[in-house]
């Protein structure tokens, strides 16, 4: 069993899939009937938008990737992918391949279109039928005048027509915070409410409460309530979840967080409600002097004693990730479980990841992943790269400091996007600002895109939130 937190360099492996470098052909798009599975559609959609956000933030563009499995003491092809971009450095086409019968074969494809503001308009998923691409799913997006996404429509293709599946509707307050999300399913030629989430924020735009309601018998019925608390640095110190009993909110579980002087999260305590708060598990994070994560250590509360569960040890070489070692506790000592070794190029891009499992005697190859890049300066206006900013600590708990001293732009705005491409934050930045604080501690663990710029130039960075 592998215990791995999705830090940026690990998250790459979870979402990318493969390589056979070539050019996109102009093939007609048709469709073989497929099953109507909204959850699969949402998962695939999330993966593709993570990929787009990650690529937009790199010094070099990831144009392809190949994965191999270790089989019978030799490397054998597994899956691959090719990525294509427009002149604005946004991913527009993804082609995924699988290795079968000693050759790479097309498997699936995802094509995206954007509006003039570089917001995604459509995402089309296709499958390869052996001779042509068949349309499978499509997602369509709507925005208001501020660029906030107000709707997402998901449809599947039945061989002749696009059939509605589900849609999401969003509302925002004057600060750009999402205050309402409504989900609807298509049934009997009409949209049927399923559930909704209403959100509340404090004066610093920190999320402090979110209530989930289900639509039952023509009315909204409470289901779950999540609450957040923060310290004076806007670090999230508490996350709690409650369930609706029919008459009142009842505690379910909570997380309690602590941070060091650099706003790096150092501990997380999980507790469950059983008439009183009972400890469940405890996680500790340790960092080097440069705020690089070096250790993650989990303990479980068992029979009134803290028992080690697993630990992850991170090593670096010249500031670049070198390895990630996962060990499990066997009741007396730490035992090797899983190892990832990283190779990077001179620009800091990860070019190879080798994953190995411990067989109690030695490390045994499991998978390896190659990444291929192209310099952004070859495909976009070089003047864009002159405007940049830095974010620290990264990874972090969500309370980030932005150094804007090299940005040299006027009339700038800041936007934050999640892996779905949903805009989570919008704020203007006063001219001549050198540094500013960005509080995202209310957001869950994951990858987020910070974009800063004006109508002529944009700069972006991905950040990793780890609570």
Distinct helical segment count: 2
Largest sheet: 22 strands, antiparallel, barrel
Envelope shape: globular
Overall mean confidence score, pLDDT? 81
> N-to-C terminal Cα separation, in Å?
22 Å
User: Could you tell me the strand content as a percent range?
Assistant: over 45%
Question: What is the CA-based Rg, rounded?
Answer: 23 Å
Tell how many strands the DSSP assignment holds.
30
- Class by SSE composition: mainly beta
| Helix content class | under 10%
Contiguous runs where pLDDT drops below 50 for at least 5 residues: 1-58, 377-386
Describe it.
This protein has 467 residues and is mainly beta. Helix content is 6%, strand content 60%. The protein contains two helices and 30 strands. It has a 22-stranded antiparallel barrel. It has a four-stranded antiparallel β-sheet with strand order 27-26-29-30, with helices on one face. Strands 24-25-28 form a three-stranded antiparallel β-sheet, with no helix packed on it. β13 (219-230) and β14 form a beta hairpin. The longest helix has 19 residues, at 38-56. The protein is globular. It starts with 7 loop residues before the first helix and ends with a strand. Residues 1-58 and 377-386 have low confidence and may be disordered.
How would you summarize the topology of this molecule?
Elements: H1 8-15, E1 29-30, H2 38-56, E2 60-71, E3 74-85, E4 91-100, E5 103-114, E6 120-128, E7 133-143, E8 149-157, E9 162-172, E10 178-187, E11 190-201, E12 207-216, E13 219-230, E14 236-244, E15 249-259, E16 265-273, E17 277-287, E18 293-302, E19 305-317, E20 320-329, E21 334-344, E22 350-358, E23 363-375, E24 390-392, E25 399-403, E26 412-417, E27 423-429, E28 435-439, E29 446-453, E30 458-465
């Amino acid at each position: 069993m592998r215990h791995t937190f999705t830090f940026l360099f690990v998250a790459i492996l979870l979402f990318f899939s493969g390589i056979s470098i070539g050019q996109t052909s102009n093939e007609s798009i048709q469709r073989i009937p497929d099953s109507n599975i909204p959850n699969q559609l949402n998962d695939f959609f999330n993966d593709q938008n993570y990929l787009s956000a990650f690529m937009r933030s790199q010094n070099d563009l990831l144009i392809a990737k190949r994965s191999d499995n270790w089989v019978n003491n030799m490397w054998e092809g597994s899956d691959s992918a090719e990525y294509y971009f427009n002149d604005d450095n946004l991913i527009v086409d993804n082609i995924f391949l699988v290795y079968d019968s000693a050759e790479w074969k097309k498997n699936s494809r995802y094509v995206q279109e954007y509006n003039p503001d570089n917001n995604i308009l459509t995402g089309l998923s296709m499958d390869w039928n052996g001779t042509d691409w068949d349309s499978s799913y499509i997602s369509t997006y709507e925005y208001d005048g501020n660029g906030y996404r107000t709707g997402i429509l998901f449809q599947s293709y039945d061989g002749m027509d696009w059939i509605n599946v589900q849609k999401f509707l969003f509302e925002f307050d004057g600060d750009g915070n999402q205050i309402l999300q409504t989900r609807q399913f298509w049934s009997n030629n009409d949209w049927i409410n399923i559930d909704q989430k209403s959100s509340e924020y404090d004066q610093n735009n920190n999320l402090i409460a979110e209530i989930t309601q289900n639509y039952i018998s023509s009315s909204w019925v409470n289901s779950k309530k999540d609450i957040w608390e923060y310290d004076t640095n806007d670090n999230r110190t508490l996350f709690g979840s409650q369930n609706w009993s029919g008459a009142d909110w009842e505690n379910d579980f909570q997380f309690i967080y602590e941070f060091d002087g650099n706003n790096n999260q150092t501990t997380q305590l999980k507790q469950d409600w059983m008439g009183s708060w009972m400890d469940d598990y405890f996680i500790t994070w340790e960092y080097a002097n440069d705020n690089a994560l070096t250790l993650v250590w989990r303990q479980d509360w068992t029979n009134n004693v803290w028992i080690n569960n697993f630990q992850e040890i991170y090593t670096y070489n010249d500031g670049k990730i070198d390895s990630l070692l996962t060990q499990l506790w066997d009741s007396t000592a730490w035992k090797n479980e899983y190892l990832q070794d990283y190779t990077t190029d001179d620009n800091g891009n990860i070019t190879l990841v080798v994953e190995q499992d411990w067989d109690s005697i030695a490390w045994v190859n499991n998978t390896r992943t190659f990444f291929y890049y192209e310099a952004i300066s070859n495909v976009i206006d070089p003047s864009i790269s002159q405007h940049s900013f830095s974010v620290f600590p990264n990874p972090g708990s969500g309370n980030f400091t932005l150094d804007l001293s090299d940005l040299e732009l006027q009339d700038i705005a800041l936007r934050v996007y999640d892996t779905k491409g949903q805009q989570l934050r919008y704020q203007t930045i006063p001219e001549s600002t050198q540094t500013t604080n960005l509080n995202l501690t209310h957001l869950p663990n994951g990858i987020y895109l910070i974009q800063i710029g004006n109508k002529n130039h944009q700069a972006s960075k991905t950040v990793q939130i780890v609570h």
